[in-house]
Design brief:
The protein has twelve helices and two strands; from the N terminus they run αβααβααααααααα. The protein is mainly alpha-helical and 319 residues long. The longest helix has 34 residues. The C terminus is likely disordered.
Length: 319
Amino acid sequence: MATSNSSNTLSSTFYLTGIPGYEGFHHWISIPFCLLYLVGIMGNCTILYIIRTDPRLHEPMYYFLAMLSVTDMGMSLPTMISLFRVLWSISREIQFNICVLQMFFIHTFSFTESSVLLAMALDRYVAICHPLRYAVILTPKLIAKIGIAALLRSAIAITPLLASLAFFPFCHSHILSHSYCLHQDMIRLACADTRFNVIYGLVLITVLWGMDSLGIFTSYVFILHSVLRIASREGRIKALNTCASHICAVLILYVPMMGLSIVHRFAKHSSPLIHIFMAHIYLLVPPVLNPIIYSVKTKQIRQGVLHLLLPCKISSSVM
């Protein structure tokens, strides 16, 4: 019986949803989404290109920033095709296996981004509290291991949650409430006991996000303690200013993330527009805003962007 359910589920077709009540305006609504995806892709690709081509940026802080750009795109790009297929009235259908693959990328890179932000907090801790040992502690080899560990941790943790979906019968509605697949959305449609998924998902969020947020908080406690011991006011401001971009990146990820989780768990009967709005903020805001924040707040990245946009003027000013 379980085998039959599994085979039926694997061949199931689900139906994505655009913006309920505004179907006639989907083509117009797609314009701001196009702009947001374009800004996010171009911004993160620019960050990666600058870090790769400028030898001065081959330092731990910028390696972690490159990881952040990769995770930003990994979290948002899987939703792009299905979103525009819905908004451009091409097709609302999505096969179960494609849906699970999309969920895997979204949730894996979401957890990975949280781990990368923890690594960036540790980077700021070492840079401010142990500046003389910075290059010795954060070697390229260690940074690569941190990146691989963050990705593997997230992928392995999310796999049981998504694999269990293959054994659920979906005997009622196959209409999802978003233009892409989310685990919280899919288990809502299952005609089976989903307690494992609910409890495991809650534990997963609590442990992974909880550990990462606790690590980030602890790092900043030590950073603040170290900064307050700096004698000059200018020195304290300069040290804290190096953390401003990272603090913004943490808030940009965690606030929409917590908002989406709260809406799905405690506001199930609220307007569908609230669920859709929160989901799009969660997936699109970090990739769009992170490159802008780091370009504005980080001098080396800002100079790299200006050099790409105005190479002649920058070269003449240097001369």
